[in-house]
Amino acid sequence: MSEFKHIQHIFFDLDHTLWDFDKNSEIAFQVIFKDLFPELEISKFIAVYAPINQACWKLYQNNQITHEELRYKRLADSFSELKMEVSDELIAIISDEYILHLPNSNHLFEGCVETLEYLHKNYKLHIITNGFADVQFKKLNNSGIHHFFDTITNSEMAGVKKPNAKIFDHALSIAKAAKGESIMIGDCLDADIGGALNFGMDAIFFNVNATEVAQPIKQITNLVELKKLF
Hints:
Layout: E1 9-12, H1 21-36, H2 42-61, H3 67-81, H4 88-101, H5 112-120, E2 124-129, H6 133-142, E3 151-154, H7 155-158, H8 165-175, E4 182-186, H9 189-199, E5 202-206, E6 219-220, H10 226-229
Parallel strand pairs: 1-2, 1-4, 2-3, 4-5, 5-6
């Protein structure tokens, strides 16, 4: 039997873990920039935007910027890095359009559906996300994976964001799950893995880019590897 034989509840992060945020984000910007900035190479923009977006999310997770500031800053900083002069009014429009278009493209990571189908037979599956509620629900529904999950906890519901212990406590409470029978799977070492471990919950790092990790953490690079662990 696996080392996780005690597990009954599996909690997943959504963006960058099941739902391929970077790929879907690129498609959304392609639609938006087609008429606004036809000369702008999307790959060039994404190369700048992706790390800035991640940095902004880290600030948001640590309550250093608000939801609205995140949506503005990630675009403003990206345009600034590309030396493009874009007005605040246009940034606001692009931000709204981005949120509108983002859930329409629903690329999932390789093996996502296969793995969820396998796990769903024997485990209760759940989502814990720092993403905004309305957008996350659209992603789950539009990508066809909503039905796999018994509960969905977002930071707006819990009043705090990962890695705060209160969001994990809230998620376990509505899932009627105990720490000792639960595990968190996510792509962020700080928010998902550190948050869960500090809360006293098992965790598996979805290390899709095979980044070197100093601490001894259970990790996978492809979702289908979970079929061998559970």
